[in-house]
Amino acid sequence: MSFKNRVALITGGSQGIGEAVGVALASQGCAVAVASSGSLEKAKAVADRLGNGARGYAADVRVPTQVNSLAADVKRDMGKIDILVNCAGVFFPTPIGETAPEDFDRMVDINLKGTWNSISAVTPYMKAQRYGKIVNIASVCGVMGFGSFAAYCATKAAIIMMTKTLVFELAPHNININAIGPGNTATPINEYIRSDSAYKGVLAEIVASTPSGKAYSDASEIASIALFLASDASRAMHGSFILADEGYSAGADFSAEA
Description:
By secondary structure, this protein is α/β, with parallel strands linked by helices. It has eight helices and nine strands.
């Protein structure tokens, strides 16, 4: 999987899975545009660590004009955009009857619209060069319910279907679009659960529900899958969804009681 002379744009690239994807791509010779929604300094710091011509940018994925400007800036600065990895997202509970409209909107605007905006921004460049790889980060929660997180589950399910449906518009232009569904993955967003003794019971429940026995995948393991989908080795894959959840969604195992 050679990425020499390839340019990748990663939204949500300054931490978590996005940062891990950047590390994986840069290690294989890819020039990476690290995009952060909140901090240009943080994005630049990650880019400096990646090396290989990486650059940092900031754009709010909720705002189409900002995302369009981001794509234009990357094209101007780095020459092209071969790969887009959509990692920008938020995760918080939205219990029915208790969730403020602005919180619901924030979830939809970042997770779903942000993914849509980013794809819309890069597609003209990819069509013009007749080449592109788009990798969307969905979630295991796009294929199973997670109590009190209905809005999050809905946005991730929508990303899976968006990925599948956009194939009809993108595949004829030699653009591959696919998605990954991570399960529990060790990132800054859940560090408190993994490290705070107050959540010891929650962690134990996650382990008990995970067939592999590994409560949290490493972000680098999800990045390895993204690396494959961003490579020419995945040429035949269009609209695919790869579940990487340590078996979490497989269901209950009653064999011990049998």
